[in-house]
Structure formats: structure tokens, C-alpha cells
Amino acid sequence: MSRYGWDDAWEQLALAHDGPGRLPGRIARVDRGRVDVLTDGGRVRARCPVPPAVGDWVLVDPAGSGPGSGAPSVAAVLPRRTALVRATVSGRSEAQVLAANVDTVLVTVPCEAGGRAGRVERLLALAWESGATPVVVLTKTDRLDAVADAVAELALSAPGVEVLAVSAVTGDGLDEVATAARGTTVLVGPSGAGKSTLANALLGEEALAVGEVRASDGKGRHTTVHRELVPFEGGVLVDTPGLRAVGLIDAAEGIDKAFTDVVGLADGCRFADCAHDREPGCAVRAAVEAHELPERRWEAYRKLLREDEWAAARTDARLAAERRGRSKTITKAQRAAYRSRGR
After folding, report:
1. How close are the terminal C-alpha atoms of the chain, in Å?
2. Interval 239-257: pLDDT, tens
3. Cβ distance 185 to 130 under 8 Å?
4. Which has fewest Cβ within 10 Å: 66, 106, 250, 266?
5. Nearest residue to 211 (alpha-carbon basis) of 195, 188, 226
6. Between the CA of residue 211 and those of 194, 215, 242, what are the distances in Å?
7. SS3 at position 258
């Protein structure tokens, strides 16, 4: 089991949930109440009464229990060390675990994509919040002339994060990415970013399906339609479907880590509760006005914080009430101003 990430700490956790004949294993795929579990005895198809995530460590009862017994079933899910979580696309601010017990997140960005900075910042906040180590990977560099310039541009949106360039076609940069892919590595990025192609190159075989992208906009179909964990020489890889929407939820710490340059400037403000708007002695506004901090980056930081606060308000009745109260106060003030103008 060590090739899948099993260690002494997991062994100790398993002892607390152990039972007769239970087998430890790691979930490689989830399909509507059924899961594929990698065990010492091979891949096991099992029932799972609780919604797990790819990467979860579980204990499997080979004989099953309860209704339909006789087929293997998951008897226990071990507590997670880390989890890559986004808000569901339903808009209800519910959490969706993309992968569990993650060590490294490869944020893949295709070289021909526009708007790279905003997408990278959002995915980095997601990755930092998970507790894993993010690495930005610029893919398909065989289609790009000024690779060094593109890497430098991405580095501005990823302070403190390693930025690598790779071409799965030519093999350039593949060794560096393989070195960065430590432990349990998850690939995230938009559809058409070349995640599955990169994963196959790291695996050394065509284990995952790949598809073409449209020439008109560089976007691809969701060739990967489910998350799947696959062992490789450096640990295990988790390929994910392309993420059209990446909502943040309870990710304030991850946002701060993704914007360490902004947070560092805020520490120099005169007032501890500075809103970085028109307050005197605001170090952030001063940096923006001096062109030391791009205004786009400052606005991106504020946008993600507002989004995270909004998600929290939708799940916290007290915060929601405060938001409604502020909204009513602003509305009353606006109406009073309109009436005053009309006199």
C-alpha cells in the first residue's frame, strides 16, 4: 500500500476503525454509490453508503454488511489530512471535495489561453486552502515562441509559487514537472489545458483519454468526465475534469497565501482596520498609485475576498443578517440623497 501513500500514521488511524477482515485501501474512482478501491489484493469495486472523495483512505469489508450483503462495502472512511474543495456550481455555496489527502496541486494553464492571471490566482487560492503545495504549470509550450516571457508573466500572479513550462509533445520541462509532482498530485485547470496529456506523459503510458481543442478559442471538450487516481513512479496522480467554474468557499487563508504581496503591503498601513480605499497612510493604495502593485491584482484580491465572504454569508445566518442590514442602510441613504436632490 505504500505506493499509494500508506504510512505509519494511516496505520494508526486504521487501528481505531478496524474490524474483522477489514482491508485498508484508497479510493481511485467514485460512481454514484459505488467506488473503486486500490488495496494490497488489487482493485476492489465496493458499495459506499457515505459520499467519499477520490483520494480518501477507507476500510473495506470484503463480505459487505446490511442490505445486499455479500458484495464488498466501505465500512469506514479515515479522517482526511487535506482536501481540495470548491463551492458547487449550484450556487448554493455547498462544498464539493475534488480530491482528498492531496500533497501537490499542479495548476495547469494552456499557453494559448487568455486571461491567465485571474484563473491562476483563483486556482492558487483553492490549492493553498487545501493544505497542499501548489505548482503552476504552463502547458503546450511547443506552440509558444516566448516561453520565458509567459513564465515571467505567470510568476507575477503566483508569488512564492514555482512556475514551470512543459510540452508533453516534445518532452521539454517534463523532468521538472515530474520532480515537482510529489506524493499525491492533483491536476486542475480549464478544459483543454492538456491535463490528461500531461498525466499520460508523467505515467509513461496512454492511461487516460485525451481530446482535441477547438482552433477558434483553444477550449476543449471534457474528455475527462470523472476524477481518477492512478499510481505512477513519483506517487499517485489524480486527473480531474476541466473546471469551467471555480467557486471559493471558506478560503480566506488560501486567498491571503495567493496574494502575499498584497497582504504584505497591508501590514504597512497606518490603521489596522484600513479598508485600503481613501484612508490616510494606506500602503496598498500608495503602492498601486506608484505602480509598484498592479491595480488589476489589487482588484482581483478584493473580488475573491468578497466572493468568499458572500459564500460564508449564505451559509451563516448571522453574517447573512448583517449583510441584509448593511444593504438596507445603504438603500435608505441613497433614497434620502435622491429626495434631497429633488428639492
Report:
1. 78
2. 887 666 678 888 999 999 9
3. no
4. 66
5. 195
6. 9, 13, 12
7. helix
